[in-house]
Amino acid sequence: MKNKQTDTAIPAAVALKYDGERAPVIAATGTWELAEEIIRIAREHGVPLYENAELASILARLSLNEEIPEELYRVIAEILAFAFHIRGRRPE
């Protein structure tokens, strides 16, 4: 996401929820202070973070509880696989 006045990236954060049954859904999304709060809560709970401003910008356009679009399945699957790996878990 870009600020039209300064053409700089707007800080954004998106949290995904994956139940192993359906495609991941948007669990939380926000910019600026809300993005910082999402990141803080994730860190508090040991949730792995993945930083990619372009991907966050795309996902931030979706609504809460909306499934990620099919075009993002592969990239999100790779991120989730890595997150499970570093936590020593496997998707259920």
Automatic annotation (TrEMBL):
Keywords, ordered alphabetically:
Bacterial flagellum protein export, Protein transport, Transport
In terms of superkingdom, the source organism counts as: Bacteria
Which biological process terms from the Gene Ontology are attached to this UniProt entry? Answer: protein secretion
The record's section on InterPro entries has: T3SS_substrate_exporter, T3SS_substrate_exporter_C
Q: Does the keyword Oxidoreductase apply?
A: no
Q: Name one GO cellular component term.
A: plasma membrane
Q: What does this protein do?
A: Required for formation of the rod structure in the basal body of the flagellar apparatus. Together with FliI and FliH, may constitute the export apparatus of flagellin.
**Which family would the database say this protein is a member of?**
Belongs to the type III secretion exporter family.
This protein is called Flagellar biosynthetic protein FlhB
Task: Tell me which species this is from.
Answer: Marinobacter excellens LAMA 842
